[in-house]
């Protein structure tokens, strides 16, 4: 714990990570469960409660929007229009919403989260097999975000797998691949349906976005399992720093332990207290580009606690890797809204995003005109 005699570190910015190459925070957390300090390479925050309090929006009224999926798929025309307009508003305001009545069985979500725990319980040698050499390798396991470029480390282990258009997956532990395949298929169907609603909410045909970006035929879907072990000084470290995601929409489920915070447009952070069994969604950079800035990508981060392991399963869906993404031509045609982003192939954007330091919207800023 930081004490009154410890100077409060307000800006910690070492130029390099001064730690031996580390492949797993789980191993470090378990082997040093007696320690009460984190290694200095993990210090991200000042630890000053006032700094955090200023930035936290604890207004109970500051609710997270809810989208009732069943109204999109089987509501009356009026109910569907209302759900589409709620969805559009959520994308425009916070860039984050919860989806209820989505039809993905609770048991399947639970089994996938359990599968993640079983994956992380494999030996370090077994996990090492999936380490991945390149940021676009279809199976990649690691720690922090990208230790080769970071100047601060994050208290997080990850497994990232490309699951669509081709399904890749680790073959251990038993059954994890099959469960995840079922979950990814159902997540895809829900996300595709939401993207139809998003397209309509922009005043476009329901399938306009899909056709422009080849989402359903070959849009990239990634399965990410994040593990955040208990951290002895959660006030100093982060599981993931503030960032936006690269795709169109990202789905997230978690093991009942909170830790996700989303940023309001006024800069304040909101703790996400998810409705049990709901799906959480945030808007990504490619929705911002496609909508020509109307639906800005949401900035979010993962905070830590000192007593429970948190697991999140994050499933972004994006355009086809081969599509050059530009703002939708119908949204810029009138001349009143000139394109605000330069076109870039999704594959190149993804590579840039994954090989850079995770830092707010710094990658999106590179394609902003
Ligand atoms: O675990 C979380 O709550 C956030 C994870 C996240 O933002 C990501 O994997 O991109
Ligand atoms: Fe994210």
From TrEMBL:
**The protein's name:** Fe2OG dioxygenase domain-containing protein
Q: Which family does it belong to?
A: Belongs to the iron/ascorbate-dependent oxidoreductase family.
Tell me which InterPro entries the record gives: DIOX_N, IPNS-like_FE2OG_OXY, IPNS-like_sf, Oxoglu/Fe-dep_dioxygenase_dom, Plant_2OG-oxidoreductases
Keyword Repeat included in the entry's annotation: no
Q: Where is the Fe2OG dioxygenase domain?
A: 216-319
MF terms in GO = L-ascorbic acid binding; metal ion binding; oxidoreductase activity
A single Pfam family, by name? 2OG-FeII_Oxy
Tell me which UniProt keywords the record has, alphabetically: Iron, Metal-binding, Oxidoreductase, Vitamin C
Q: Which Gene3D superfamilies match?
A: B-lactam Antibiotic, Isopenicillin N Synthase, Chain
Organism, as annotated? Rubus argutus (Southern blackberry)
């Amino acid at each position: 714990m930081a004490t009154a005699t410890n100077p409060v570190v307000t800006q910690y910015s070492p130029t390099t990570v001064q730690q031996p190459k580390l492949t797993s925070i789980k191993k470090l957390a378990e082997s040093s469960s007696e320690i009460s300090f984190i290694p200095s390479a993990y210090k991200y925050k000042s630890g000053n409660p006032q700094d955090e309090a200023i930035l936290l929006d604890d207004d109970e009224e500051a609710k997270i929007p809810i989208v009732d999926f069943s109204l999109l798929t089987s509501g009356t025309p009026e109910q569907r229009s209302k759900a589409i307009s709620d969805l559009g508003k959520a994308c425009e305001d916070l860039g984050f919403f919860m989806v209820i009545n989505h039809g993905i069985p609770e048991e399947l979500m639970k089994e996938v989260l359990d599968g993640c725990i079983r994956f992380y319980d494999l030996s370090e040698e077994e996990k090492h097999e999936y380490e991945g050499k390149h940021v676009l390798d279809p199976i990649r396991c690691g720690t922090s975000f990208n230790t080769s470029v970071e100047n601060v480390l994050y208290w997080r282990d990850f497994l990232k797998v490309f699951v669509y258009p081709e399904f890749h997956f680790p073959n251990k532990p038993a059954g994890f691949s099959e469960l995840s395949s079922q979950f990814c298929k159902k997540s895809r169907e829900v996300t595709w349906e939401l993207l139809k609603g998003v397209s309509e909410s922009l005043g476009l045909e329901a399938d306009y976005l899909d056709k422009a970006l080849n989402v359903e035929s070959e849009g990239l879907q990634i399965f990410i399992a994040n593990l955040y072990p208990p951290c002895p000084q959660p006030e100093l470290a982060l599981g993931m720093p503030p960032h936006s995601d690269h795709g169109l929409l990202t789905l997230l489920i978690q093991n009942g332990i909170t830790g996700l915070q989303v940023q309001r447009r006024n800069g304040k952070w909101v703790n996400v207290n998810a409705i049990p069994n709901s799906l959480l969604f945030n808007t990504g950079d490619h929705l911002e580009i496609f909508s020509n800035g109307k639906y800005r990508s949401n900035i979010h981060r993962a905070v830590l606690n000192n007593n429970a392991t948190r697991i999140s399963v994050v499933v972004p869906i994006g355009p086809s890797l081969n599509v050059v993404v530009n703002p939708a031509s119908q949204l810029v045609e009138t001349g009143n809204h000139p394109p605000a982003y330069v076109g870039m192939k999704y594959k190149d954007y993804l590579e840039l995003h994954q090989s850079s330091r995770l830092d707010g919207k710094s990658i999106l800023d590179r394609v902003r005109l």
